[in-house]
Design brief:
With 401 residues, the protein is mainly beta. The protein has helices at residues 2-11, 151-156, 317-324, 338-342, and strands at residues 42-44, 47-62, 65-72, 81-84, 88-95, 104-106, 130-136, 141-146, 161-166, 176-185, 204-207, 218-221, 225-232, 238-242, 247-252, 255-256, 264-265, 267-270, 274-281, 286-292, 355-358, 361-365, 369-375. Helix content is 7%, strand content 34%. A hairpin with a 2-residue loop joins strand 2 and strand 3 (65-72). The longest helix is centred in the N-terminal third of the chain and has 10 residues, at 2-11. Mean pLDDT is 89; it is low at 1-25. It binds copper (II) ion. Copper (II) ion binds next to loops.
Length: 401
């Protein structure tokens, strides 16, 4: 009986689960979207049916800050769509927004009428309506989905997601497959609604809608081959840097990069409107920083719009300002590192510019920052905690320089 049940479970097409929807029996691992999930599907006469619901979303950026975003199925970015090259897919899109929308399948080769540009390929999906998109996947790689109605508002508020098409069989063994969507927001300190009119002055930078210390680390076991897919529909490019190892860029939303053209790199620039796939062997145990290398993008809100006090002697000013603003603190003369340990109170619903606590003290980061944790052994998806450096392998103070 038990074996019959197991046989049935293997045969019956399963609804995708959040963690690894396609891992059983397939020639590849399912994609993990840290702080997100994959979209479940059902099978209708051989067609994989997905259902996206465009709707307002309460999104926690990190503990202490929730914004009023727009997204899909309660998430921003929306859930990751995973399918296989050759699949016939039907994607139902229900509009629960206060305005019309549509969905464009960025980089997917499909019939013109399925491309989702309102006015050009279809009518608006009005509030309350559901549209069906249906096409056969003729490629594999990392694609995206996003609206093509009122693009600036809808994407600025967080409407976007991965559309990952797995190959029928991976040419290269991949042990872990991660997907990270980049986004930048302008949320005035104390507010909860991002400003969609902002063109260049953003103050909240996120990996899958989370800013450090709200980002979940990426885990890998020593020797595993890891792929990270990175997508960007924001207004700026984001050079994403990983410490402790070298990687190669293996694909874009235009398809795989031939091996002869794969440059070794430590930073991959992800311009707006593109995806980048990188691969590496996790051969160096430790807690490795992974972050945007535009330094202000690895900081939170309060780092922005500050007067430049570096080197300014503020003696005497503090007392004078305190008569107007009780509790005012002069700072910044010797740089801003003191902020890392200060845990200052800001307006409510605002993230401190530098945050996080590590085994050696304040981490002092924010925004697009997370950790890649490489270990000899992992216990499933469980966070292994902080890396314990072997004795004699840490930087240390010395008596006589
Ligand atoms: Cu950046």
């Amino acid at each position: 009986m038990k074996s019959l049940l197991i046989a049935l479970l293997l045969v019956v097409p399963s609804v995708g689960s959040a963690a690894k929807p396609f891992s059983s029996g397939a020639n590849y691992v399912g994609t993990v979207t840290p702080n997100g999930s994959s979209l479940p599907w059902t099978l209708d006469h051989g067609v994989k049916v997905f259902h996206l619901i465009a709707e307002p979303v309460k999104k926690e950026i990190a503990p202490g800050m929730v914004i009023d975003a727009w997204g899909y199925n309660g998430q921003s970015p929306g859930p990751t769509i995973e399918a296989i090259e050759g699949d016939r897919v039907r994607i139902l899109v229900t509009n629960k927004l206060p305005e019309p929308t549509s969905v464009h399948w960025h980089g997917v080769i499909l019939p013109n009428g399925m491309d989702g540009v309102s006015g050009v390929n279809q009518k608006w999906i009005k509030p309350g309506e559901t549209y069906a998109y249906e096409f056969t996947l003729k490629q594999h790689g990392t694609q995206m989905y996003h609206p093509h109605v009122d693009d600036t508002t809808q994407m600025a508020l967080g409407m976007e997601g991965f559309f990952i098409i797995h190959p029928k069989a991976e040419k290269q063994r991949i042990d872990r497959d991660f997907a990270i969507f980049l986004h930048e927001w302008d949320v005035p300190p104390g507010a909860s609604r991002p400003n969609p009119a902002t063109m260049s002055d953003f103050n909240v930078f996120t990996f899958n809608g989370r800013a450090y210390p709200g980002t979940t680390p990426l885990l890998a076991q020593k020797g595993e081959r890891v792929r990270v897919r990175i997508a960007n529909l924001s207004m700026d490019s984001h050079p994403i840097h990983i410490h402790g190892l070298h990687f190669v860029e293996t694909g874009t939303d235009g398809g795989p990069i031939p091996p002869a053209a794969q440059l070794p790199e430590t930073t991959v620039n992800v311009p707006p409107g593109t995806t980048r796939d990188i691969e590496f062997v996790a051969d160096n145990p430790g807690d490795w920083a992974m972050h945007c290398h535009k330094n202000h993008h690895a900081m939170n809100q309060m780092a922005h719009d500050l007067p430049n006090m570096t080197g300014v002697d503020q003696q005497g000013v503090e007392a004078k300002v305190r008569t107007l603003l009780p509790g005012y603190m002069a700072m910044g003369k010797e740089g801003m590192a003191e902020m890392e340990e200060m845990h200052m109170g800001g307006p409510t619903n605002t993230l401190p510019m530098m945050a996080g606590e590590g085994p050696y003290g304040a981490v002092g980061m924010g925004g697009m920052f997370t950790l890649l944790k490489v270990r000899e052994h992992l216990d499933g998806d469980q966070d292994p905690g902080w890396y314990q450096a072997p004795p004699g392998t840490e930087a240390h103070p010395v008596e006589r320089p």
